[in-house]
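Marked as duplicate of an earlier ticket. Keeping the data here for the record.
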Amino acid sequence: SDVTLLTYVFENFRDVCFHAYNLNSVWYYTAPGLTFDAALKDTGIELDLLTDYNMVLMKEKGIQGGISQCCKGYCEENNKRMDNYDSESESTYLTYYDINNLYGLGVGRDKNFRRERKGVYTRSRSRLSSASLVSVNRSRPLHNSHSDLLLCPENKTPPGGKHK
């Protein structure tokens, strides 16, 4: 039955996690939590404990929700693996990504920038990442329209898209 098959799959997953990372997947609420601990073990990175209450509050204040998506009403695949492949047309592939914290993924990558002069950032040679608390003054109408989003999200039309 499906339940029996699922138990075998889960027990296999549990064994793989335990043998690869010495982590018991049953003790984690989500796969991202397990993945994060596995990455820390694999890289040997030790995170500093936040002992300053104001630092904890700053980190908590930076946690925001939202949605990032790219939607198109209809897509058609055309590549050599398809039965009805049209060699005259451009090859296209369909890919589906289900990613939690897509915005966080984008802003969390390669944060090694240093400030050269006001408003201009260039890539630094340092591989260290950091977080900064900044104060930005915005007019009240902008404040209200931005209250549910991070300050600099982009609203772009994807290539071939018709709607913004």
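See parent ticket for discussion. The chain has two domains: 1-47, 48-110+129-155.
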